Every structure is written in C-alpha cells, then in structure tokens.
Amino acid sequence: MPLPTVTIRRVRSAEERLFQKLMQSYHYLGALPKIGNTIWYVAVNEEEWLALLSFSASALKCSARDQWIGWSYRHQYDRLHLVANNSRFLILPQHHYKNLASKILSLTKRRIQQDWKERFGYPLLMLETFVDPTRFIGTIYRAANWKLVGKTKGFHRTRGGYSRTAKTQSSCLPCHYSVTPVLFCPPLYSPTPIKQEEQE
Known about the structure:
alpha+beta
C-alpha cells in the first residue's frame, strides 16, 4: 500500500478530547495530561487522522542522556527547558504503512522547533524519547536519525518521589549542530540550526 501524503499540525482546542480518547484507547501507556510545557500534534492525510504525538518537558534526570551530553548539574537544571520529550507517539491501528512513522517523526522535528519557540519563548536544541525494549526495538526512531544513548535505571518520578519501572532505551535527536557542546558550554551561545535540506 503506498505511503499517504502526510501533514503535521497542532491539535486544535476542540480536538483535545478526541486526542485524549484515542490515546487512552490505543496507546499502551494511555493518555497523558498536559503538565508543564506540552504540545500535541496530529499527522493527517486530507484531515484524516493518521497518528498522534505528544511533546512535553524533558525528563528531570536521565543518566544515559546526561552522560552523553556531558553537562554539569548546574548547567543541566538551567537548560532542561531546551530539551523536549516525545512522551507519546501513536500510529492509529488502521494506518500502519511502511515508513510512515519515521516520515512523521522527521516532519514533526522540522515543525516543532518554531512552534516551541512561539509557544514558550525559547528554542529547542534537542528532542528525547524513551522506548520500552520489552515492547519495541526503536526502529522507527533510528530510521529518523535519532541516536540511542543508553538505558535508564528503571525509575520514574511520582508525587511521592520515585518508583521503579521497566528500564527503557533513551534516544536523542539533536536539532542543531554541536548540540552537546552547546548544552554544557558556559555561557550558553546561539547554535547554528541544521538546514532543512540536511535533515532529509
């Protein structure tokens, strides 16, 4: 079956209930409320929904990510807002086309940088995500040029502190050249964006 034409757009206010309903029904982790900096996207083909994505604030701590970046604790807490977490990605059951997922990820990367700056007032330097290896192997992220940086220690934040969960694979996608020196460099300087044609 040929790959459909895909457009990425933000979820409209009137669509948020449907977005959450579909995420709750079809994503193994269920729906995720908007907490902190969050943008929801839908991938469409002539307004038919193909996939749903949620990007939210980055993980407070992730040793694999933090070691890969090489930042100190001081720089980490000052600059976490420059990283966004792809906290949910759902291809709707009737739209599992070959290469669709990696195409959606690539298109979303191009769009989210401007959206994030307009919505929250600062740029994104990097995207991150976490994949449960007992369910998935992360092929779609590798196909979209995300870099596997290691495994988590198997904890997640709760209101009462931390609780144990499955160890997940941590992957990152730089949005700019030399992103790791930018994130740990004192002082923070303005990076050079990756040109559109070089993201293909």
